[in-house]
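pinning this so it doesn't scroll away 📌
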Amino acid sequence: MLFRMRTGEKGETPVRLVIGESAIDVLSYAAMDPFNFEPSLYVSTGGGMSPEALEEFRVLLGTIEAGGRVMIAVDCDAQGDRYEEIYAPMIREAGLKPLRYSPSARDKDWNAVLQRRARQDVAA
């Protein structure tokens, strides 16, 4: 994993893990995340999944509270589909629930969603 960010109190076990393709997408998702008050771990892969990164992801899944959720925050495209196909079985294998979140087709990625919302707020 190339990027990690944790929310919650020091020593709290995360109840969620959010994985995305790039650090900026994960940060953008976190800025809009309605559940960012929950102890969470946000990570990005930098757009690639080497064998080492896959193993690190398995280890990170083991740090999430039992019954926790893993948000797959990927783009709404074929690459996002591919990542979901890789992550979801690993997440289930760890006893966690995978949930995919992707921006609508009009937005390229989570950073585009955040930028659009910011422009709308300024215009309002």
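📌 and the second one:
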Amino acid sequence: ATLEATLLDTEGLGDAAEPAYAVLDDLAARAQRAYADLVHETPGFVDYFKASTPVSEIGALNIGSRPTSRKPTTSISDLRAIPWVLAWSQSRVMLPGWYGTGTAFEEYIGGGEGDGDDAEDRLQVLRDLYRRWPFFATVLSNMAQVLAKSDLGLAAHYAELVEDEALRRRVFDKIADEHERTIRMHKLITGHDDLLADNPSLARSVFNRFPYLEPLNHLQVELLRRYRSGDEDELVQRGILLTMSGLATALRNSG
């Protein structure tokens, strides 16, 4: 029985498996609350999303095999998964792949009051999980890959498409704060200064593509501005399609 348990302990956690899953459930609940707070509770979020990403053009220009929404409503909940992810990747926010995780980690580390654990103890729990549990390490690695492809400088240019300045600042600042927090927490838990330190070949591949992506992002913002101003020239529409295709191909996170 001992040999069987050892051989079948594919998670590498042994007797610590149950506490590890409890930590994961805790983190998931915290991340979900932070994500829902942005997407469902932030006033004007839907307007910000539609203005700062090409999600409306994905539907208007017939990108994809199905309508962007399940119903003709303005609800985020009715939006299909692919246009939701595609729109955020085009604007270089990559939001669905990381938002809420930084808050979850930060709250968990600082939330030990009453259980006898201090922040350093709870941080060590996460570090041990990262070291011992391949699943947890893979989750952080996948998140880091998405974060590495994000660019909040370029995302700020897309945010300029939001005409309501107060709305723009309110939502973008919230996203930027969580972006910084998530990268900081990733470094704190993994001990890596670079997001892709555990995969140098991928890092080279990703960063070698960046010089070709930035012009596409700038071009897309300008074409979106023209299209939304009433310029329905076929070349403008074709240009939007081409920039979307180029970015989706290079980023490989199209949804």
